[in-house]
Amino acid sequence: MAEQNPPAPPGAQVPPELAERLVGGEINLAQFVGLGREQLYAIAQVAYQFYNSGKVEQAREIYRGLVAADPLDSVFHCHLAASHHRLGDLDAAFDEYTAALRFNFANQDALAGRGEIHLQRGRLAEALSDLRAAVELDPEGKRATTLRARAILIAIKEAMEKTGR
């Protein structure tokens, strides 16, 4: 029996040139289905509310969808990373923080988060590099993540002074 494609819903015609642009990487999935930046960020706001209210798994699923819809958005990768981080999946968090930095090397939140993971893994030099970079990008400490990065750097410095390093 030959495999058949499922019937398309009424009125759901996809122009072949649009499909070709998606396959060719000229447009992302969000553009293919007609979602603009405002709509994507409105969805991200819902995920952020979930995240802040402790519904981190739900937030992570929304962020996964946003990354799939627009894989070049540094913010979506960073928020997905933060969700993984909070859920204890350090490998996935590290990968997503790194992806966020690939698309925006000045993403302070991604630098701070990745720096924390480096520290948790005992990679002090890498941790110091990322944490310092985050703080340098936000010298006034306007972001919570860079305030945390600054506090970690101070704690490391104090610990090193106590041990005579």
Protein topology:
Layout: H1 16-23, H2 29-33, H3 37-52, H4 56-69, H5 74-86, H6 90-103, H7 108-120, H8 124-137, H9 144-162
Helix pairs in contact: 3-4, 4-5, 5-6, 5-7, 6-7, 7-8, 7-9, 8-9
State the end-to-end CA separation.
73 Å
Number of domains: 2
State the shape. Answer: elongated
What's the CATH first level of the largest domain?
Answer: Mainly Alpha
CATH topology of the largest domain: Serine Threonine Protein Phosphatase 5, Tetratricopeptide repeat
- Helix fraction bin: over 70%
Radius of gyration: 20 Å
**SSE arrangement, N to C:** HHHHHHHHH
Structural class: mainly alpha
CATH architecture of the largest domain: Alpha Horseshoe
Number of strands: 0
| Binned strand content | under 5%
Stretches with pLDDT under 50, minimum 5 residues = none
Number of helices: 9
CATH-assigned homologous superfamily of the largest domain: Tetratricopeptide repeat domain
Characterize the quaternary organization of these chains: single chain
Biggest pleated sheet = none
